[in-house]
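User: Sequence in, structure out. Go.
Assistant: Echoing your sequence, followed by the structure tokens.
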Amino acid sequence: MNAPVAPADLAELSMTEAADAFATGAVKAEALVRACLARIEAQDAKVNAVIRLDREAALEAAAALDKARASGATPGPLAGAPMMHKDMYYRAGKVSTCGSKIRKDFTAPVTATVLQRLDAAGAIDMGTLNMAEFAQNPTGHNAHFGHCHNPWDLAYCTGGSSSGSGAGIAARFFTAALGSDTGGSIRLPATLCGVTGLKATQTRVSRHGVMPLSFSCDNVGPLVRTAKDAARFLKVTAGHDPKDPTSAGEPVPDYEAALTGDIRGLKIAVCETYFLEDADEPVVTAFEAALAALAERGASITRVKVPSMRAISAYTALVSRTESAAIHAEWMREHPGDYAIHLSARIYGGFAIPGHLYIEALSRRGPLLRQFVAEALTGFDLVATPTLRTRVPTLAETDIDADPANWARFMAVSANTRPFNYLGLPAISLPCGFDDRGLPVGLQLAGRPFAEATVLRAADAFQRVTDWHRKAPVL
């Protein structure tokens, strides 16, 4: 048995550290849960990350794990790791608000496949998290449950729409959280809160039992501390699900085994077109330093031009807005006043998009993916970009309900993440520095379809020689 872990340190453990400590008997699941609960109860009044805290249920689950471990049962790969999830993952019999007034009393009839897989792996579910209303903004504002606040500075955005997931991981409220990513909603909270967030290849993870936003752009994935955490999480949750006919049948590799630390010969393209345009100086400085760290590990860095980015960016918005309008059409007719002002405006905009433009955007998806691969990934393994071009904005600077003039700044938040949803490519965001105001900067790495192992290997190699992912805010 390993030496016990000091209780005061337990909330600082990453997901894999917590699960591995439990597996070896170095720590009890109940102690892990109590450490996280203490953080939440002491600090969430400032952050506003939590919607529902299932305190007693989490402690009961932890006690059951401890009993099973003591009797000699083999723990699952995530056993003992406390988690909370964006409040749009259905658990049968539990309320799932989707961050909205319309669903504030909605009781889920089914349990999401991804939650079932986490349960089977021994993860402890402590409740649900704040989010942008119906997952439809990139900043984390929520008029119904209150805005989520960035633990690095409470006046600043967390990123959205998985706001509570990003803020809670940064504040050490839990070890892992499900987010969702339709235009960057995992990667944006990851970068703005200084944590790690993975969007896998489109269809890699089942979406059964998850609130939809866009039929062809939604993705399920984790916000965690490290690339190693993301690798283990994805191994547990990925794979075909008969309940989701769109989920891929591709074999699921052992992502964690691919984390060798060796990226010698890895070829990384830096797209100078689009992704670095009008980028703030502190962001560029941190990004270039991250590229240098990858080069020192043996990767080659090449600057490329990607003319297809203009069309990709334009079509991305057409697809997600049209599909969102279709999903919300009935509620918009029956409860138009129950939406926040900015959200109803976005949905109404979707109704105005002509059908032929939507079909055009769908039909151009395959050709543009091939063109992007030809321009940015032929001869390369990965594409590197800043996750967010600008410094982290404040909540006030991006509040479009209070001031519609903030619209451009609001939409600019997701400029660098949206294209990878339209293209369906895997992408990760990981912390790579801080700006001149002390707010995090994120590095985004994207790869070919189903090349998550390569994306994670590079991210892990970067985190082996940097410590940005280990830095925590002081509340």
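User: And one key feature?
Assistant: The mean pLDDT is 96.
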